[in-house]
């Protein structure tokens, strides 16, 4: 891999928002004396992404993910900080810059609302000066993955959400950009297409070293595509590193789910031990949350001997659970810090 293609230093975005007063009297006062407050959507982040990386940029709603993507793509101007993508400043060199990136926003389309999908693609081909042979080759490849043929002649305004997302993904890749920004790209897309899309993105990354920055609430996308994840909350980066390292640190608690042939109590059966937390999900199902040092084979052998076990499942922690653990841990640390600070 080459050097970094995306560099953000001290990146911040603050919005000035109307601070509405409560009640009828408050509304009357707002007519003559409006109050505003500053809302920090992104509060000074540093981010460096190398060519060919696939980065998962994740966090809860309102964390600042989409605002970051919009600044990196040049849609929003940062309040402060510096951005370089593909050697360009997205805001000062926009005309040259947009030819080197592709972007998909789950809630907005880049296609022309009243034109057929195929006509929108033709316009984009001319805008990006894509040779006709390459255009046809790429469109055929996208059709294999996204099944575009069934709605190429349909006006964009008549597409379902899933169809529109497919069309937007294809449109973002028609000019073969070296950097691709995906903001909730699989909203409304069916499970089979999601699987094909993940495979396609991995092939694109492997064959063309396309750099991908992905925000999504579908954690299966993250686990399938990303080795590195950046977790953001309240406009600040909480974790930037290897996905497996994040899991190891915050996701060590596996779960043992037992389906029983008859009601049973694992604690009464002598299965309680340090590092094991038992929960009765239903009369015929119990769940053990396991600490990192628990000997799972030994526990399972005891459970099979002590309880009428019909089925066993060992559940690995999902990335969503890992992120929740991370944010919960940081929240607790922050509360302790505040409590210890002098007033």
What would you call the shape? Answer: globular
Number of domains: 2
Q: What is the CATH superfamily label of the largest domain? A: P-loop containing nucleotide triphosphate hydrolases
Helix content: 25-40%
Gap between N and C termini: 50 Å
Number of helices: 11
The radius of gyration is 25 Å
Report the average pLDDT across residues. Answer: 86
> Which class of secondary structure composition applies to the elements?
alpha/beta
CATH architecture assignment of the largest domain: 3-Layer(aba) Sandwich
As laid out across the biggest beta sheet, the strand order is 5-6-7-3-8-9
Order of helices and strands: EHEEHEHEHHHEHEHEEHEEEHEH
Number of E-type strands: 13
**What is the CATH topology classification name of the largest domain?**
Rossmann fold
Unreliable residue stretches: 332-343
Largest sheet: 6 strands, mixed
What does this structure look like?
It is a single chain. α5 (132-146) packs antiparallel against α6 (161-173) and α9 (243-250) packs across α11 (319-340). β6 (179-183), α7 and β7 form a beta-alpha-beta unit. The protein has a six-stranded mixed β-sheet, with helices on both faces. Helices cover 37% and strands 28% of the residues. With 343 residues, it is α/β, with parallel strands linked by helices. The chain folds into two domains: 4-248, 3-Layer(aba) Sandwich (Rossmann fold); 253-315, Alpha-Beta Plaits. It is globular and about 70 Å long. It has helices at 23-32, 65-72, 94-97, 117-127, 132-146, 161-173, 191-208, 219-225, 243-250, 296-306, 319-340; strands at 4-18, 36-50, 54-58, 80-85, 101-105, 179-183, 211-215, 228-233, 236-242, 255-260, 276-282, 285-290, 309-315. It contains eleven helices and 13 strands.
């Amino acid at each position: 891999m080459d050097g970094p293609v995306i560099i953000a230093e001290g990146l911040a975005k603050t919005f000035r928002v109307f601070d509405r007063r409560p009640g009828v009297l408050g509304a009357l006062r707002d007519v003559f004396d409006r109050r505003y407050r500053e809302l920090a959507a992104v509060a000074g982040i540093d981010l460096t992404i190398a060519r060919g990386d696939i980065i998962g940029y994740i966090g809860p709603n309102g964390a600042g993910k989409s605002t970051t993507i919009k600044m990196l793509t040049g849609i929003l101007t940062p309040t402060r900080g510096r951005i370089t993508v593909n050697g360009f400043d997205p805001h000062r060199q926009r005309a040259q810059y947009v030819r080197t990136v592709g972007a998909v926003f789950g809630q907005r389309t880049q296609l022309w609302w009243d034109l057929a999908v195929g006509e929108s693609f033709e316009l984009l081909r001319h805008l990006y000066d894509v040779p006709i042979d390459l255009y046809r080759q790429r469109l055929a490849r996208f059709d294999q993955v996204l099944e575009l043929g069934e709605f190429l002649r349909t006006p964009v305004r008549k597409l379902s959400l899933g169809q529109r997302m497919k069309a937007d993904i294809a449109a973002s890749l028609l000019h073969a950009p070296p950097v691709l920004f995906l903001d909730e790209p699989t909203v409304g897309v069916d499970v089979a297409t999601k699987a094909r899309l993940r495979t396609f993105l991995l092939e694109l990354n492997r064959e063309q070293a396309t750099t991908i920055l992905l925000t999504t609430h579908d954690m299966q996308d993250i686990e399938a595509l990303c080795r590195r994840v950046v977790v953001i909350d309240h406009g600040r980066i909480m974790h930037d590193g290897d996905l497996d390292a994040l899991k190891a640190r915050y996701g060590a608690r596996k779960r043992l789910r037992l389906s029983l042939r008859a009601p049973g109590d694992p604690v009464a059966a002598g299965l309680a031990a340090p590092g094991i937390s038992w929960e009765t999900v239903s009369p015929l199902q119990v769940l053990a949350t396991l600490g990192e040092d628990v000997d799972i084979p030994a526990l399972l052998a005891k459970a099979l001997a002590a309880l009428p076990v019909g089925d066993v499942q060992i559940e690995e922690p999902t990335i969503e659970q890992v992120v929740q653990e991370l944010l919960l841990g940081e929240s607790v640390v922050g509360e302790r810090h505040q409590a210890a600070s002098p007033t």
